[in-house]
Specification:
Glucose Oxidase, domain 1, two-stranded antiparallel sheet, globular, EC 3.5.-.-
């Protein structure tokens, strides 16, 4: 890998690991095609104790966003309150009152999925489509994330790389997680990763941010997947992957003068669904305690028509 030639490395990986045409010219799901009915039955069979864990961060003004590309933290506003009801100003009969609220936020400001229309490679979107014909001011006209809403539920696998590879359960910022790290972690957990799995990678960065403050969590240095994992992401035939970091891949990126090169291969070329800013910490503690690192996972995006990303509350059940 020539660190001075990101475009060459991206082009080589895009050609080697492309899934264009694999599921037909009209495909809208990418690697979610690997998550079939059999894989969902397998995932459902993993529920033993019935304990559940939310893998979502909070959606509030205390989140990590600092305004990069107009990404802000959620703003929650009440439209009707208990005070309105108590004062009798709502105009309802027989003493009934209620509360209503509204939230304004970028769709990728907290725990979220990157949809297939989120990243382009040299003007091409997923499956080789022209980017300008896929995503316009009206939204993603072809691969809007609403098409994925029924399908993101199945076997989840936690790879707690922070616990296995890192010191004190955390990887330092700038640590590049390689295929070897992922494989060693899976072996340490006694779990296999394969076709149709939803993989959750814990680096420990979120735990550190909670302890020390957000700092540059949103967009700054972070542990994450190495660009060299593109081959593993393709060969493993996983349905989706998510991390506890802002950007999924290692930051600073491994090339000079580059920005998120693994995204450029994984989303428009592999067709991979990527989750960011997930919170696997409580789940990781339970997995370490009982030794089981696979579980039923449901993580449906909101069916927002034409959206290129979506907030999500992933729920793991063991």
């Amino acid at each position: 890998m020539n660190r001075h030639d990101p475009e060459g490395a991206i082009g080589e990986a895009a050609k080697a690991y492309s899934n264009w045409g694999r599921w037909g010219e009209h495909d809208r799901l990418g690697t979610l095609n690997f998550l079939d009915e059999g894989k969902r039955r397998q995932g459902a069979s993993l529920v033993r104790r019935g304990v559940s864990f939310s893998l979502a961060q909070s959606f509030d003004v205390n989140g990590p966003q600092k305004g990069w590309r107009r990404r802000t933290n959620p703003v929650h506003t009440m439209l009707d309150t208990g005070t309105d009801a108590a004062l009798g100003t709502q105009g309802f009969p027989h003493g009934i009152g209620g509360a209503d609220d509204v939230i304004a936020m970028p769709l990728q400001c907290s725990t979220q999925w990157d949809g297939l229309g989120h990243i382009f490679d040299h003007g091409r979107a997923w499956n080789g489509r022209a980017a300008e014909k896929v995503v316009t001011s009206d939204g993603d006209l072809v691969t809007g994330i609403e098409h994925m809403a029924p399908y993101v539920a199945g076997r989840g696998v936690l790879l707690d790389v922070g616990r296995v590879i890192g010191a004190d359960g955390e990887l330092p910022d700038g640590f590049a997680v390689t295929e070897e790290h992922l494989t060693a972690t899976a072996e340490a957990h006694g779990v296999a990763v394969g076709r149709g799995d939803i993989v959750v990678v814990r680096t420990g960065q979120l735990a550190r941010a909670r302890r020390e403050g957000w700092g540059d969590y949103a967009g700054g240095p972070a542990p994450g997947l190495s660009f060299t994992t593109a081959g593993w992401l393709h060969r493993a035939e996983i349905a989706a992957i998510a991390t506890d970091t802002w950007g999924f891949e290692v930051r600073p990126n491994e090339f000079e003068h580059a920005f998120q090169p693994l995204h450029q291969v994984a989303i428009p070329n592999i067709g991979l669904l990527i989750g960011e800013m997930w919170d696997p910490d409580a789940l990781a503690e339970d997995c370490a305690a009982d030794g089981g690192y696979d579980f039923w996972l449901t993580a449906a995006p909101l069916p927002i028509t034409g959206a290129v990303g979506s907030p999500v509350n992933p729920v793991a059940v063991k």
